[in-house]
Input
Amino acid sequence: MGFIEILYAETRFVWAGLLRRKSALFTALLYPYILTAFVILVGSTMGSPQLFVVRVGIEPVPFFIVSSFMLMSIMGVVDDIFWKPLFDEFMGTLPYVIASPVDRVLYFVALPLPRLIIVLFIGLSSVLPVMIMYYGVAGVYEAVVVMLLAGFGALVFATLAMCITGALYIAGGETWRSLNVIRPLLMVLLGVFYPRWLMPLTAQYLSWALPPSHVVEAVHRMLAETTGNAVQYFVLLGVATALAILYAPIGSTSIRAWERKKLREGISV
Amino acid sequence: MSAVKAVLKAYFTAELLRNKGIVFGLLGLALWLSLFLAPLTLFRPPQVPAGAIASQVLVSIAIFLAYSSATWDWAWQIRWLLFEGILEHVIASGRSIFILYIGIVPISLMWYAAALAVGYLTISLLVSPPTISVVDPAALVLGVLTLAAVLFGYSMLLGGITISTGTSGPVMEFVGWILPIATGGIVPLRALPEIVQRFALTTPFSYPAELLRHALGLSTPILPLKTTSIVGSFYAFMFLVAALAYFKAQLKKMLREGVKTAWMY
Output
């Protein structure tokens, strides 16, 4: 089974899932608004939105709606790489998945691509209306760029996610509990809610190792700087791409090692 | 009593000791809190004492964690029983389903206390150690009691919905966020827009939060304190009774129509 066939099958699966699980889709669309309302309401009782503007250089509403969207998009696309083996194990389908002739690495590479549909849905329902409200017609262009960058950020995360998934599942044990610690840690280090340039230096070093954190910074800088600095944006996107390529062989080895382990030791059902 | 002990022991051993759930759970919680608390520091004016802001945040976290316990421990338990195919065995055993809750609630409270301690530490690290002072102990007791009653009723309502529909993950996630925000759990009611204040006061959820904030000297209730106390207590009691009646009706419906299949999400 080639890459195109896997991709086609996954796309049909994701599309059917999205249409069938309307309540889950509805919740996903609402989340950027809920997270934005949560942070801004609590933040406003603690102080003032004007102080936020002085410190970050962006109005809180567009900043948090874009940040929440980036968070939902990146995790929505990549989450299946983290959870899929565990989900298959719970459902009892992992033995069939492992026994199938599909190339495991190709399968994991194909996993995030159809999920970019989620980025489109969430972006159209959250980023686009808010950006138009704040910036008028220019907001449409910014929203499109933000949505494209969110998709790109999710894709460059895929290879690192494969490294983490392979390593975790090889280690075995309480994988879902470990994932529930690793996911918020990654979200903190991505800098979606707290711009990376304001983080302590140690956190910045850790954050630089994550490919999508550079994309998130590019989006934040784009929103903060009215003139923009194209070179700086391209450098950030270049670093993200380079890191994704760097993690690719490790991710591939990691997934193959997990597959070999399953073939050697069998699967508990 | 033996059933209660068995549930308590099974829950404690399986969730907290064998799977090291408490360690992973608290680590995860601290990271989630950091994710949402870090940006809040960007709103803080330098002249306002950090301790006062930290106490507001701690109370918000305390109320949010209480909602989380009701949603993910108490209501989710029904979903878990349904999902694992245990619910029908519990009913067939002839024992009340509420026996499970007598076993689960102490563990849940222990979790709550540990999570609140982690919240305290995270706020202390990111903002400042919260300064807590009780100015009205009676209101504090009433606030805690009415909050417990309202949240148990809320979990039974969610449990009943789960039994009747077979799936509730998105509903729980959505309600678990919206409800504390829209009813003054996260932010003092006085700081919310008037339309939200009106909506919040029509629900039983706003009164306990108003009482708790008043008791800790963090905010004054919108309604007079006496009205807040009387209406809040009566409303909490009626809500609990109605929710229990709804839950029992769903159990009866399930016995007539069979168990719904719960879905993964």
About this structure: Chain B has a mean pLDDT of 82. The CA atoms of residues 33 and 217 of chain B lie 24 Å apart. The two ends of chain B are 34 Å apart (CA to CA).
